[in-house]
Amino acid sequence: MVTIINYILIALVGGVGSVLANKGIAVFNDGLRPILPEYFENKINRKELAVTSFGLSFGLIIGFGIPVSIGSTILVAHSVLLACDIFGTWTPHNKWGSVIAFGAGAAYGAGLLLGLSWIVKLFAMLPFNFFGALSLLGSPILLAFCAFPAIAVASQHNYKKGIITFLWTFATYILINKFGTFVFSKNIKITLNAIGMALLVAMICMIYYAAKIQGQQGANANLVNIFSNRVKRIKSNWIWLSLMGGLITAASSELILAVDVLPQQLLVKGQVGEAAIATFARAIGFIPLVFSTAIVTGVYGMAGTTIIFALGLLLKGQPIVAFIAGAVWMWIEVQALGATAKGMDKFPGLRDMGEHIRTSLVETISISLLIGAAIACNKMAPNLGFFWVIGIWILNKKLPKPLVNMAVGPVATILFGLLLNILRVMQLF
Question: Are 134 and 413 in contact (CB under 8 A)?
Fold first, then answer.
């Protein structure tokens, strides 16, 4: 049940996040971060920055973040934090601009959470209630997500190592699913989560292969020296970043904000511990990407390395404690930025792993959502659902400005549900 505290928390997340983007302190979209130095150096104007931000984020919000969030009533971070990027860059870079950005972000965050609650109620009033089918949209992601480390390994190294990682992941799931329950006495029984263990083994393989790469040391250390002013800029904004870290952690502890689709789907099933493990595993892989881009651009990630999401889940139901823990953790991340980057010089493979992870995650989520859309639409209308999703997917690629792949499945599913309602009213379905 959504409480007043939840609305206040998500409003503050939206408001403070928009201020961070307005001031150029932090953004959520990895693609927007390298653009901000161009604005700082007057190579592009505010209007161009705003248009770029909108172009990078709007499709993901409408096509991915909000539709997936509707299916579970737990907000995916993309639906809120990408909007913060837009509100922050579309408002003037001054005192009043920050105030306007805060107001817009806060109203959007609270309105989104409220709107999702009403949308769920609205579904029950439709001639054809497709909410149950919509919840199937993310069903393939739970296990398919475990394949992304194998894809990252194949991309960074070679297909043979990718296949080996994939087979280890597959074998782990089979074995844990079959033999993962241990009974120690009548009252003590431990059951390992097969998906969580499969993802853990896959991540270990990915890190192992990356750590074996040897190369010239000093690249990141030199990077820190060259961009020392930008590192100092991030550290000087530690108060704002710690505030944001605390708010996101508190929201995560209240189970109203998830970092991605996999943790969200696990939370829907009540598997909070497994969601925390999945969130932490994802965050570990993103550390090189977040830190490297932060050093080069002087702009930090709005959620840092996203470990704060896992921290919030571990502190479920304790928003005050979670806020303090998240603020402290974000401060630690910021202060350790330079030292961690230098330390990564010993493992250049780990340094380069981030971009491969990001690409493989997008590919895995895109195909999973497409399959999920086909399952959901076929549940609504057998056979016709497959026709609809496959047709929309292919036709989208022919458009002058096609939707990003992650957005096609969710958008096709919602449009199909609405279309079936129209056909039901017309007595054609």
Answer: yes
